[in-house]
Backbone:
């Protein structure tokens, strides 16, 4: 059966969402923070320190409200240079955030992280948008930016896990080759679990959103298959490139040899 994906303009998407999706009042939205407060309370009671959780939550709210207004402007502008600028910001930011848990100075391996996400995530983004979905125009913001966000974020998380595990293993005395294997395996655990669980344990956010907006569950499933493939691919390729590039760094060069 041929996969047909119908592209809608930003205005058509907005009209469809208005017709099908229920607007969440701010009071109702506030109720969704109850589980968040419970977790913060647990963290505080267990003396872990709630500051990070509180800061992350506040930052999430601020960022999402800001991006909501920003995306409205970007979709209406429909300009390729603006889209390229947004993708560049996403790329450079994700490359830095990926190294958040690494104890060594980030600047020592930032280039490796940036290049890994650029090649691993960028190649997958190009394949999906230009070959699978066939965007017209090629930079269609309402598709390009959300898909890039999912891909770059997934690559970022994968590299973060790979980096943390790689340096933990080298600190224990493992050689580069041994640490690389452990790190790559660890970086693929979350997405591999998602592949096993999708449709059986979990109904992914994108598929749920499409169903809520009135799209056939069968069509939504096709989109989700595409998403899971791009997530697995971007995670594995980005981590593999990152770990390969680490071998030539000064930090790894001073660690035990294979």
Residues:
């Amino acid at each position: 059966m041929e996969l047909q994906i119908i592209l809608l303009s930003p205005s058509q998407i907005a009209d469809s969402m208005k017709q099908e999706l229920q607007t969440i009042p701010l009071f109702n939205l506030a109720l969704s923070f109850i589980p968040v407060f419970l977790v913060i309370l647990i963290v505080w009671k267990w003396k872990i320190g709630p500051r990070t959780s509180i800061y992350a939550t506040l930052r999430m709210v601020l960022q999402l409200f800001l991006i909501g207004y920003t995306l409205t402007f970007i979709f209406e502008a429909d300009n390729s240079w603006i889209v390229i600028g947004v993708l560049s910001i996403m790329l450079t930011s994700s490359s830095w955030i990926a190294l958040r848990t690494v104890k060594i100075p980030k600047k020592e391996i930032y280039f490796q992280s940036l290049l890994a996400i650029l090649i691993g995530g960028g190649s997958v983004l190009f394949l999906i948008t230009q070959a699978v979905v066939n965007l017209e125009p090629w930079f269609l913001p309402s598709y390009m930016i959300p898909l890039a966000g999912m891909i770059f974020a997934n690559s970022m998380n994968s590299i973060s896990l790979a980096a943390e595990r790689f340096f933990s293993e080298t600190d224990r005395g493992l050689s580069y080759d041994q640490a690389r294997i452990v790190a790559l395996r660890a970086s693929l655990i979350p997405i591999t679990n998602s592949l096993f669980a999708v449709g059986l344990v979990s109904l992914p956010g994108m598929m749920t959103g499409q169903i809520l907006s009135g799209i056939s569950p069968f069509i939504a499933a096709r989109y989700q298959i595409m998403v899971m493939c791009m997530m697995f691919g971007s995670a594995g390729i980005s981590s593999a490139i990152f770990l390969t590039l680490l071998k030539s760094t000064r930090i790894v060069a001073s660690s035990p040899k294979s």
Remarks:
- The radius of gyration is 20 Å.
